[in-house]
Amino acid sequence: MLPSMLIPFASFLGFLWFLVYWIFGGVFFALVAILRLGRVRKVRFSCLFSVWTLFCGVGAALFGIKLGEESIQTCYLLAQTRAETITAFFGCGFAGVFSLFMLGAVAVILGGFAILSLSKNKSKAWIVFDKEDDEEKEEGFQVEGEGFFR
Question: Which of 26, 66, 92, 108 is most buried by its number of CB atoms within 10 A?
Fold first, then answer.
């Protein structure tokens, strides 16, 4: 359990990590979906990805603070003012918090690819960018002989 003094900061940090993961991860996977030219069920992906980034953000914040808790506690004992307390947290707990932030980012990317594969739509795309397929279709529609426009 976190000390009562760290709970508001952990809540704020969890929400901040969620926003960072959600915004940058969402942009990343929007580009991936566009470049792969696949059909994706957007609502399913959006809902699952939002829940996943919230889970990763809160988990990264809580476990990051837990990882650096011993060094943070040592610095808290030495801190006398509120400014020293905040400085002590960032100075002493930076390695634990940042390492779990990066681990959370990796989890968001890997989980996002899994969610993207779960959210694929099996229906045919409206736009096909294969030139060979278009040429074959055009050849199939050519009719020999007299036509209306000939």
Answer: 108
Q: Is residue 78 part of a domain?
A: yes
In a domain, 139, yes or no: no
**Total domain count, the chain:** 1
Which tokens belong to 67? 């990882």
Q: Does a structural domain hold residue 150? A: no
Structure tokens at 30: 């929007």
pLDDT per residue as tens digits for the range 77-134: 888 888 887 787 778 878 888 999 999 999 999 999 999 888 887 766 566 666 665 5
pLDDT tens digit string along 37-54? Answer: 567 788 888 999 999 999
* Residue 138 included in any domain: no
pTM of the model: 0.69
The neighbour count for residue 17, using CB atoms within 10 Å, is 26
